[in-house]
Amino acid sequence: MIRALSALVVAGVLSGFAFLLLTGRYRNDGPVLVTLSANHGLHAGDLFVIAGWAVAMVAVLVLTVRPGRRDR
After folding, report:
1. pLDDT digits (tens, 9 = 90+) for 33-70
2. d(Cα 72, Cα 47) in Å, to the nearest integer?
3. Residue 37 covered by a domain
4. Which of 1, 20, 25, 71 has the most CB atoms within 10 Å of its CB?
5. 16-30 average pLDDT score
6. Residues 1, 5, 21, CA angle at the centre, nearest 5°?
7. Alpha-carbon span 50 to 53, nearest angstrom
8. Domain count of the chain?
9. Residue 56 sits in which domain range?
10. Per the domain annotation, does 10 fall within a domain?
11. Do residues 4 and 64 lie in contact, with contact meaning Cβ atoms separated by under 8 Å?
């Protein structure tokens, strides 16, 4: 139970940070790859944020699904 709750907290925080990075402006935005509207688009720098988020979510999933160590 504590493992699943911890995974939900970590996933929520990571998703929140990724959302803030994707919607904000930062130094390494890079060129616009896909225009979504007049003021929004997918920048080259966003690909690194998305890739990092995906790797982190897989790690959280592996830690949650993997059977726990049983002490004897």
Report:
1. 888 888 778 888 888 888 888 988 888 888 888 776 66
2. 45
3. yes
4. 20
5. 77
6. 160
7. 5
8. 1
9. 17-63
10. no
11. yes
